[in-house]
Every structure is written in C-alpha cells, then in structure tokens.
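Open question from group meeting: does this chain pack into something compact, or does most of it stay loose? Before anyone orders reagents, we agreed to write out a predicted structure and look at it together. Recording both the input and the output here so the notebook holds the full record.
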Amino acid sequence: MTERYSECPDPRDWSKLNCALWPLNLDLPWVQYLDVGQGDGTFLYFPGTAQTARTMLIDLGSKKNADVAGSCARQFLYCALRAIQAKYGYATPVLDHLVLTHGDGDHHNQILSLIKNFAAAGHPLTIGCVYIGGTKEDYDHKLLKELLIPHETAGTLRPLPDGASNPIDKPQWPFMDGKAKVFVLSANYPLAVGRPKNRKSIVQMLQYAGSSRTLRCIFMGDAEESVEKAILKTYKGELDFVEALALKLGHHGSRNGSSAAWIRAVQPQAVFASADMQWAHPYCETLKRVADNTTLWEQPPVHGYLCGEGARAKKYYELHVDTKVGIFANLVKLQSYSTAPPPTPKKGGSPKKKPPPRPRTVFADDMQTVSGTRYQLLIQPSGGVEVSSGALRPGAVMRVLVRDEPGRPTEFPENEWVQP
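Structure tokens returned:
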C-alpha cells in the first residue's frame, strides 16, 4: 500500500484547524471525492468572480468509521469553504448547492455535524439551496427538523420531480459561463414516493468543455441497474452523451449495479467506490464486470484496493496490491482479520457459545489498517493524465483538476508526482 491512513480527530477548536493539510488551487475547477468510509460525499468547485463562483456538495454521510473518515471529510470541507470565503470576500462561508441524492443515512448523516463545526468556529455556514431525491419524509427526523423544514419555509428546498432528467442542451446547473455544466441524468425513478429509496437517487453528471477535450464525471448515488436502464432509455440515440472519464459506482459498488450495458455505454477510464467493507462493497464481481466492459486507465501510481465476495457470515475479502489500473476503492480502516475459519464443533457436541464468523482474506499480513486511495487527477488538454500520490492525505479520494494550458500544476509539489 502507498501510505498508512492518518486519523483526523475532531479538533477542540475548529477555528484553529490546520488547513495546510489540504493545499488548494482556487483558480481551477475541481472535483473532490471525499473519503467518508462506508458512505458517500463529493465536493465540486467552480471558480469565477465573487458573483459567479459556485460550490456544490453531493451527499455527506458515513456509517462505518464515521468518527475517523467523517471527521476528515468535514475538516477538508471546512478548510475549503473557508479558503473560498477568503478568496471572494464573502461575509460567511457559503455552500451554494447541497444535493442529497436520497434518504439513506450514509449519504447525509454528517451534514448537521458539518454545520455545527462551522458554528463552533464562529463562522456559520450559509447554504443556498437544498435539493433532495425522494420526499422529505424519507430523511430522518433530526435532519428534517433542523435542515429540510427550515429550507422549505425559506423557499430554498428543491425536491426534484418524478422521473427527472435533463435534455443534453439544458443542464440543471450551468457554471463558469456555461463552460461547466451539471446535468441530472435521473431522479425519483419511477416516483418520488414509495420504496426502495435507492432507485430514487439523484444521478448527476459534470461536463466540462475545455479548449481541446470534454471531461465528464458521473455520480450515481445508490442507483443500481433499474436506474441505469432508465438512463440508457432516456438518452437512446445520444449515448455518447453519457461517456465519462470517471464514474462513481452506484451503491458503493453493489453487485446489483454497474451492469455490463451501463459500463459499455459510459466507458469510464477510472471507477471509484466509496465503501468500508461493511457489506463487502465494492464487490469483486462488480469490479470484474467493469474491467471486462471498458478499457481502464493503466497508468495510475501503484496502489491497492479491496473488494468483497459473499455476504454476512460468508463474506470475505480480496486485497489487490501493487495494481496499476483505474479501480479505486477507498478503505479507511479495517479491524485485524484472521484467515482461520471459525472453530468446528466437536463430533457429538457443540461449543457452549458459538464464536462469531471471521472473514477470510487472501492477504492477511497488511490487514490491520489499509490506506484509502485518495488520488488527485490532472487532465491535460492534450489528453494526457497524471496523478499525484501526494494526495494521499485525509479527505481526498480524487481531485479532477481541469486546465486549459499544458504543464504541471504548482499546487502539486514536485516530489509528490508519480511518473506513469
């Protein structure tokens, strides 16, 4: 593995947080996949003037290792939004758009903590509009009371309609004078009411038209195959519209998503799964399906990733080490696992207390802690791609930096670059 994970305990004084951990170039647009363990979160930044610069947060939640990963993500967001506030001279830190893809807690249960962190530092966070997948009743009572209802009262809660999707010439959110566009590919399929929640996920796509190439990133929420089929049907005859460099796998790399037809349509070079092995996400069979149906980028730094098989008592893990392929599955922290199977009851009897099953792994020596993969990607206008291994610091899974001129960016220190 490239580097051990560094924990981020919540600081006693948020106003004195050391933001030097996250150097940011605020003159470039970027996408930051947040390492939240078993959960999801993505932050988008679009530079401009004080009147036109915009920020968007797509989900922020964590169900496993939230005390570690959730805190890291919140600290990154605090530093990023405070830096943006300083750059543009805002009176308060501002999050322009908050998108909650659907009602599952691992996609939103860190939001209120983030808001409280800003308040504790004496810099209350201003949130512009809140967009939700499903209905407000899908969300837990505390979030409903403290965030959704106040925004509904203020007229800034924006539920999306049933079966929502944007035409290819009408993005939901245009930024940077139209150079950057965020589309809704699906929301509330087929209806906002009812269950299951996952298929109601807001699926978004960022499209950035640089001087020589178009970059796209797709964010799936917990959408699975039924939603993928609906999107392919919506854009039938225009499938090149959903071709994307980077794909956040639906439902943390669930076996029920990332179908072969979807992967063939998107043709991602890099795929990401935000998971911490609570339910064997991302599944090895899903990653194999991805690899079999697209040409993954084969020039990232040497890194490792975990994938899972089975479920519950029969769950086990595969650790892939020293890989150079565009599969990035972020793990924050694993407990120490044993390859030994549970004790077998003796003939004619059984143990007084049945021990809990212990997951098997094909690689046991490095399982005490496993670093999450948190890479920064630079897409050159010539089509070349480089990666900074120095981005292996808390809070970052991938940052897509878009540049209209070739050359190595100054925000990545020289000694942090890995040559393909």
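Observations to bring back to the group:
The longest strand covers residues 54-62.
The radius of gyration is 21 Å.
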